[in-house]
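Ticket #4471: structure export looks truncated?
Reporter: QA, pipeline team
Priority: medium

Steps to reproduce: submit the single chain below to the structure queue and open the exported record.
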Amino acid sequence: MTETRAAELPWTYRPVTLDAGVRAAFNRTPDKLALRETDRTLTYRALVSRINRVGSAAMGDLNLGLGDRAAILAGNCLEYIEIMCGLSGVGIAVATPSPRLTAAEVKLICDDCGARVLFVERALEDMVRAIPFGTVKRIIVIGGDYEDWLAKGRDTPPDIPVDEWQPFSIPYTSGTTGTPKGVTLPHRARTLIFYAMAVEYGCYSPDDRALAVAPLCHGAGFAFAMAPVYFGGYCEIIRRFEPDRILDSLNAAAASNIFLVPTHFHAMFALETSILARYRRDTLRTIISNAAPLAQATKQKIVDFFGSGLLHETYGSTESGIVCNLRPQDQLRKIKCVGLPFPNTEVRVLDAEGNEVGPDTVGELFSRSPYHYNGYWGRAEETRATFRGDWFSAGDMAQRDSEGYIYLVDRKKDLVISGGINVYPREIEEVLFAHPAVAEAAVIGVPDDYWGEVLKAFVVVRRDTSASADDLLAHCRSSLAGYKIPKTVEFIGALPRNTAGKVLKTELRASVKG
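Actual output as written to the record:
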């Protein structure tokens, strides 16, 4: 906190930070079970002790302090929560690259945010030790030397003036330029949205029990796992999604809530009837879906299997948090709808001139709330481009009906959501362009019953050269994570373009449908 900012605040000021809620829960019920991952558990007493040691060891052994950055590259585990809380509690923002990324992608993210330490799971240790990082000076292995490092910290609360506007994490998302951008999420935005989630979903009291399935490296996955712990509840962390085991875990954990993406539901409903029959409808009160639109047929299956009155479908983005939610009573009434604005959120649908459009008229969707990001890390111009005044837009086109419900007409212009994960075609196109046989390339999403969308590449080959689809896919695998690899490649003579030379992806999409 700067002296100027401190002078503006009353002496009673206490910032809302990620770790503050966990510490309050500890003071309330110190010996209550907070987290479980397979056969490992942490009470609130043990969790806060480890959070204290993470922060202390970071300042002492690593010589990190307020405003520094770190990164974590790991799958779902207990350590993810304690590292995120412990580091951010002493003012160290944490970048959260996906463990599915390649070495080149991990290097780019760590170098971009200036991470000085990287926490990595043991399975990825060899890969990261071979990376010539620009800023990372220390690698700590979860399941390796992590416990020895943790023992260097003290079990005392930090006395660090962390402001609620400071970033606790920096998740990365690719932009239309193909370069990943760091989304700076402040403590204030994330903690305030926890309160709104508790109000809207009704499942984050100290008595609630959550099952965390989605990757913690993603903004939504972390939020829906952290919210129950922030309020003194219980969360069971699932390392790997296996649909039959999820149903068993819902029973064993007596879970009251779960967050899933559409692909999870597809896999679940593909199970044999005898496996589905093992699920007991005893305790589950809330199902939250996000990341990609749910097909209406899938919604009907969810309601038929789990029961009515449970399903919420949420729309938002990493930058804006949650913007809208379609409540259970509207799931089968409002078709292809993302619902009403989230608590303490305003939305507007504007035309190209910035005028608000009337009902059933398409415009760009803007929102304003306390849940927004601070901006893209080191990218002021790109941050400003997402705002009109203090109204944020992810570039989605939408319309409102006469009751005020929001319907998405089209997502971000070129964004593909495959299996609940955002994939930006420009990044794949840049990799294809690097192949010596490729003159032009364009990547789009095409419908897929299981994944929602999959990637399809259209490629123009240079004269006097040749390349097969297998050649190009192998080239992509050397630079991109598996989920970014196109499923199909189509060779064409030329890409359709407008008079300004811009590729007309609408025509490419139409050719696939046609």
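Status: closed, not a bug. The export was complete when the record was re-opened. Leaving a note from the reviewer for reference: The domain at 416-513 is CATH 3.30.300.30 (GMP Synthetase; Chain A, domain 3).
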